[in-house]
């Protein structure tokens, strides 16, 4: 019997870079097991072009994704995720309360949006953060035992 896919929401403040890359990576790497989502507490309203470019290097197109507000995943309008992974410290603090059954993890990553320097350096920072997100997804979520409902 097929298990339902576990809904994972990646949360950051603006939702233009880290959470968007995480959403695209999880969908690409394990979309058969997880429904990948992302949102922001104060959404920027766009997906950063450098994040799109960094993901295209891996053959993953996040261009069609959109910046979303976390309220889209709160009742009564939205369906809460099974797991929220905050990818920045400010989002961890600004995240509204979700039902008790929603599991929460905190994985802070540097924000490549604030990188300064040459175009080459800035894009290398987007790549670095993308690769750190991919490594953590593979190590701590994708390659772990399948999710078992603990009855909470």
Name of the CATH architecture: 3-Layer(aba) Sandwich
* Counted beta strands: 4
Structural class: alpha/beta
Query: How would you sum up the major sheet?
Result: 4 strands, parallel
Keywords:
152 residues, alpha/beta, Rossmann fold, disordered C terminus
Describe this structure in words.
This protein is of the alpha/beta class. It is built from 4 helices and 4 strands, in the order βαβαβαβα. It has a 4-stranded parallel β-sheet with strand order 2-1-3-4. Helix 1 (18-30) links the parallel strand 1 (6-12) and strand 2. The radius of gyration is 15 Å and the shape is globular. The two termini are 22 Å apart.
Write the layout of secondary structure elements.
Elements: E1 6-12, H1 18-30, E2 34-40, H2 49-56, E3 83-86, H3 89-94, E4 103-106, H4 119-142
Parallel strand pairs: 1-2, 1-3, 3-4
Helix pairs in contact: 1-4, 2-4
